[in-house]
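Justification of resources, computational component.

The compute hours requested in this renewal are based largely on the per-chain cost of generating structure records like the one below. Each record pairs the submitted sequence with a full structure-token output. That output is archived, and it is also reused by downstream analysis tasks.
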Amino acid sequence: MLDQRFDRDDYFYGTEPSHFLVAQRDRLRPGQRALVVAEGEGRNAVYLAEQGLAVTALDSSRVALAKAQRLAAERGVEVDFRDADLAHWPWEPEACGGPPCAELLYTPELLREAFAEMEILQLEEYERELQEGSGHAGQAALIDLVARLPVAAEPKGPG
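The structure output for this chain reads:
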């Protein structure tokens, strides 16, 4: 089903990164690592790679991943794209997320629990009008999450 969504000449969600991701630019530093889940055709992963991050991007649509690889090549960046069955991702076996089943949508509580080992820098739930290609046009309920691995304690010098 996902392959059918992305099996078209244009990019279903466009090629520009999401508004949320662009708003996080001040947090991005070359050399950081990023994991992009349910990436689709690559717009966000490519943007992160353009900022100098080492990016791993997951999606379950091989058609979308092929387009994502093409976008990365056109923009001259490298991204580690991986075919992953997101419905069976090990973070939270009983919540695969996404419509049309409301009970499967992500919640801030579910994300807080799934990323409990990480430092949550931002977790915000809100509604917004989107204009991101034909796939994201109209009112949307969104949850933005920015998390990072905890910074290891600095070693103490002699003294």
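The mean pLDDT is 84. Residues 2-148 form a domain with the Rossmann fold fold (CATH 3.40.50.150).
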